[in-house]
## 1
Amino acid sequence: MRVAAIDLGTNTTRLLVGDVVDGRVDPLVRRSTITRLGEGVDARRRLLPFPIARVRNCLSDYRRELESLGAERALLVATSAVRDAENGEAFLGEIEWSYGFTTRLLSGEDEADLTRRGVGKLDPGTVVVDVGGGSTELVSSRERVTTNLGSVRLTERFLGSDPPTAEELAEVRGAIRAVLAEHAVSATDAVGVAGTVTSIAALDLSLVEYDSDLMHGHRLSEAAVEAQLERLAALPLAERREVPGLEPERAPVIVAGAVILLEAMRYLGLQEIEVSERDLLDGAALEAAKLPEPVEGDAPPGAYSCC
């Protein structure tokens, strides 16, 4: 079955269209657009009008693309920003009515489980590290941890200077370590997923244009992550936007994301982490294949009432 999965993240809205065959996803198209839906949510607990407008524009483009590719089912999953926002569920109601997507609001545990499923079979002791805009998940076959450590959230809380000061960076590190210290996760290896990890990997590989074949399976060392963090943190935002291989719209939050990644590796006691292109989107695509055939119906509860 040809399906579409949309990940409505705190920083990025992503699309995967692919064929589900024998329990695996053969991707046709992957798209990623930085929409920053979670802008201001940490402080105000509401999805704001401008971020909502950016997401709507993106979803209109994605709807046209998945229809042109013949997707039979479309599942949109929403994560940290929508979980935290008072008007989040109402916004999902609008999305269902306006775009025809089935929507699911994922808990942190749901997000971890779908990401683990999307990555695929892993050796015992391997932990998946998913650094998002609003949350970070650590999940293995034995353990599942979700935290409120996200690149957008921590940037808004701590990194007010341009470039960030040494004191601000130390504060971010301290906050991350304090949260991770509340959990006990053991690992013999790790797989990193999502935009922060792939962005740091692209810089480590000196990629000017994104190349998924080179990215997938690349092993990032702790030293490489630390080197990229030091490089990026030293640059003002305007110069960070010009760094070859770094998506300009990711530049505002990449420093906080890199700190989360580095501290997660140190917390797990690992010198390397493997980069994976397969993640939450792939898990959502497998779930999309289970959906019943869509039917026309009434507007869902809360439609057109979120803002």
## 2
Amino acid sequence: MTGDLAPLAMTMGDPAGIGPELALAAWRDRTTDAPFVVFAAPGLIAAAARRAGLTAPIIETDPAGAKAAFSKGLPVVPLTNRVQDAPGCPNPANAAATIESIERAVEAVRQGEARAVVTNPIAKATLYEAGFKYPGHTEYLGALAEAWGGPTFPVMMIWSETLAVVPVTIHIPLADVAGALTADLIIRTARVVDRDLSARFRINRPRLAVAGLNPHAGEGGAMGREEITIIKPAIEALRAGGIDAVGPLPADTMFHPKARARYDVALTMYHDQGLIPAKTLAFDEGVNVTLGLPFVRTSPDHGTAFDIAGKGMANPASLMAALKLADRLTR
């Protein structure tokens, strides 16, 4: 086992998605000795095991008992909110349990009962129907982190051994990106990335490659002026502050092997500009890491997959990569 280290705290994700069966498969196929505990409805996990044909005893416990239980079965901390079990059928009635799972996993880390949060996928649209007011997981975790004291600035990074990317703007319509993009936003994001890559990933002086917004990085202003008025001044300010940042670079030439060898992380100006190459190059190995929090949070880099939920077809590779990275960053 991992000596005196606390377990990793895993959320169940949307009960109608593949999270429950991924948790089971990750316990069955575990390749790391780091124990984890799932905050979920035990009945939901047991039903998922039966449907998927997974032999994994469900052991109800608290975080303190997770390490002792882990070798015998999947440790599960029961939730107080009830869950309706219907794979592939998202239900706003499950929102309270989904949110409770996240809150209790974060609180377990804050109390020292767990050492990192590993989240299974949620369905934001389903939560919105129930009144959820945050754009997504990342922003909600940032709000919960304020219990540590002081404001946070959460930053989403998609990480794999092949490529790491950080979108500066995240869950907003593409039509709103240019208006939301500011030099201050780029600078704040890059500073968080530089700090966490150094402190948590142990990268000495991280190399940041900053993409342009427009085709050909604006072509000297012929295809847009955001590179001139926003992105380049931000990069100059970062370099003046001692951060190794280059750009703005044309996004269409940033992701081939020789280009990737020149940087540790790519900062892109909007969601798909970075996540398309990241998921194309390392879909099953990609991990969503939230930087800028007072705790480590990782997550598989995919969604709820309602279309295959309950069929035993879900691939646990990305969740297992998330567990492995959370373990690595908190040892």
